[in-house]
């Protein structure tokens, strides 16, 4: 690894394998010596160069994972897998500060967000350490009699995992932990923007006792080559993908050729509904979390705020006051709450989206003046009100610190607007009447609903979306099932 920014080298070297590609428990260079540049979004400067995997490494990673499968899957008792995962949780929490610094450096998120991500990410190891030993099955008499049915669940096999840059640790552990608990081995392709955190996790898992070959990590600038190599390989039996709906569709089509088992965690366009009887102060606090965690770069981020006309003025006034106080700047500066976006292109895309909304009649109620000395990919926290209900910005995933407010007075109308999206991941509902909030929530096309809460993620709950937000669930018992196949035995009992 070729770290260029002084002090950063120290923690990169202490956390990550020296080369970059992690196969069979060791770092290695690319066979063509290709290198991938990792940049700091807060400055645009080079952080380090690491090995850039290609097709030969993709094949070698599957060789390693397939080689390790019989020992890890069938020959290692669940209790042993559980203890290794528990140790991974503990190690991750011990290394929390260093890992958070690594995330902040390659992703740009504020240090507090990075630390919260590490705690959340580590919790998947703890949760699935506990699930690993709860092997459930069934035994019963068939309805017609004369046979006994035994149902068991076995690991699906070698799993290919593909993760995005916005939660470089949590998106990796949310897949690795259930896969390992179930007895699968994995090949992981992190996003090219944020490969260092995934490499650090692979090394940490090795220290926790995960045998060589069980977890393999391939940073690459050629994701399509690496992932299609995996999808064409008959030894790969599972694809678990988190990323945009567009790339998810491409991978679903590729997976269809071999009918590969797939789980898809895709894009979102979360509505945040404030009813007339809501506690407005609580709704504003929830809105801050739902919108600005990770600078708005979350699949669960509230994109569209539907506020009842009778409380709209109060809600917007208080929300704007809070947004005006958000501190934007380099992640390592204590107290900063919002870092840069991931790339310059993201800044340009969101600017175009805001301009088009204003062109369509939205009112720019607030835009923070950023410190002109900031050199990275920053976008100012922005609030748009009076957004026409058919504006493009309400249909697209914004993925940045921009609030759009639409007012309403007819509950049926707002329900139709909310469900009028192709996405169905998260939603938020605020009301003083829990029964009313739940009735409304049950009618939403959303896999997850925060009721009087601005956050929904929890390792113990099934995370995932409806409609074009995905297939399958992560976390909870459901998350482990994604890496298992049911098998039953019909036993003659005559
Ligand atoms: P992306 O789809 O561009 O990339 C995701 C991953 O896919 C990356 O590792 C990327 O390298 C890889 N990839 C890109 N093109 C590929 C191809 N042709 N073949 C194989 N792999 C390819 O998404 P992103 O910009 O990294 O992440 C943001 C998106 O992820 C947003 O849409 C967000 O909503 C979504 N997301 C969803 C969840 C969820 O749980 N539902 C969580 C986090 C992020």
From TrEMBL:
The chain positions of domain Aldehyde dehydrogenase read 31-487
Q: Which Gene3D superfamilies match?
A: Aldehyde Dehydrogenase, Chain A, domain 1, Aldehyde Dehydrogenase, Chain A, domain 2
Identify the catalytic residues. Answer: 265
Tell me yes or no: is Oxidoreductase among this UniProt entry's keywords.
Answer: yes
Q: Identify the keywords attached in UniProt to this record, alphabetized.
A: Oxidoreductase
Which top-rank group of organisms is this from? Answer: Bacteria
Q: Which InterPro entries match?
A: Ald_DH/histidinol_DH, Ald_DH_C, Ald_DH_CS_CYS, Ald_DH_CS_GLU, Ald_DH_N, Aldehyde_DH_dom, Aldehyde_DH_Superfamily
Instruction: Please name one Pfam family that this protein belongs to.
Output: Aldedh
Residues crossing the lipid bilayer are none
The UniProt record lists the EC number as 1.2.1.-
| MF-aspect GO terms | oxidoreductase activity
Family annotation (PANTHER family): SUCCINATE-SEMIALDEHYDE DEHYDROGENASE, MITOCHONDRIAL (PTHR43353:SF5)
Q: Which family does it belong to?
A: Belongs to the aldehyde dehydrogenase family.
Q: What is this protein called?
A: NAD-dependent succinate-semialdehyde dehydrogenase
Q: What species was this sequence derived from?
A: Blastococcus goldschmidtiae
């Amino acid at each position: 690894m070729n770290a260029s920014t002084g002090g950063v080298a120290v923690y990169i070297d202490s956390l990550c394998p020296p080369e970059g590609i992690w196969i069979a428990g060791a770092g290695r260079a690319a066979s063509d010596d290709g290198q991938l540049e990792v940049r700091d979004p807060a400055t645009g400067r080079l952080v380090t160069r690491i090995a850039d995997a290609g097709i030969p490494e993709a094949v070698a990673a599957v060789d390693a994972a397939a080689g390790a499968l019989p020992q890890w899957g069938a020959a290692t008792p669940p209790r042993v897998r559980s203890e290794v995962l528990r140790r991974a949780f503990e190690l991750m929490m011990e290394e929390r500060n260093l890992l958070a610094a690594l995330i902040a450096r390659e992703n740009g998120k504020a240090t507090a967000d990075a630390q919260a991500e590490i705690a959340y990410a580590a919790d998947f190891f703890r949760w699935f350490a506990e699930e690993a030993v709860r092997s459930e099955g069934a035994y019963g008499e068939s309805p017609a009699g004369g046979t006994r049915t035994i149902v068991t669940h076995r690991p699906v096999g070698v799993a290919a995992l593909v993760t995005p840059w916005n939660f470089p640790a949590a998106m990796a552990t949310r897949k690795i932990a259930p896969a390992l608990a179930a007895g699968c081995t994995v090949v992981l392709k992190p996003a090219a923007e944020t490969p260092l955190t995934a490499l650090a996790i692979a090394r940490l898992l090795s220290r926790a006792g995960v045998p060589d070959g069980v977890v393999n990590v391939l940073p690459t600038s050629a994701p399509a080559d690496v992932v299609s190599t995996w999808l064409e390989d008959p030894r790969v039996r599972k694809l678990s993908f988190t990323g945009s709906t567009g790339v998810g569709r491409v991978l679903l089509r590729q997976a269809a050729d071999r009918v590969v088992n797939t789980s898809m965690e895709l894009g979102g366009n979360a509505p945040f509904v404030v009813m007339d009887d809501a506690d407005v102060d609580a709704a504003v606090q929830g809105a801050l979390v739902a919108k600005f965690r990770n600078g708005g770069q979350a699949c669960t981020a509230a994109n569209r705020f539907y506020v009842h006309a009778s409380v709209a003025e109060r809600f917007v006034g208080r929300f704007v006051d809070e947004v005006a106080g958000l501190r934007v700047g380099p992640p390592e500066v204590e107290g900063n709450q919002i870092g840069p976006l991931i790339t310059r292109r993201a800044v340009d895309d969101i600017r175009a989206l805001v301009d088009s909304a204003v062109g369509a009649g939205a009112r720019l109620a607030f835009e923070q003046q950023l410190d002109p000395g900031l050199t990275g990919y920053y976008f100012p926290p922005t609030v748009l009100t009076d957004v026409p209900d058919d504006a493009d910005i309400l249909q697209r995933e914004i993925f940045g610190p921009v609030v759009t407010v639409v007012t309403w007075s007819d509950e049926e109308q707002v329900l139709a607007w909310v469900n009028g999206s192709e996405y169905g991941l998260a939603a938020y509902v605020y009301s003083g009447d829990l029964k009313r909030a739940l009735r409304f929530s049950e009618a939403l096309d959303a896999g997850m609903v925060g009721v009087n809460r601005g956050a929904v993620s929890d390792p113990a709950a099934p995370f995932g979306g409806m409609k074009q937000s995905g297939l399958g669930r992560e976390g909870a018992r459901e998350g482990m099932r994604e890496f298992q196949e049911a098998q039953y035995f019909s036993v003659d009992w005559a």
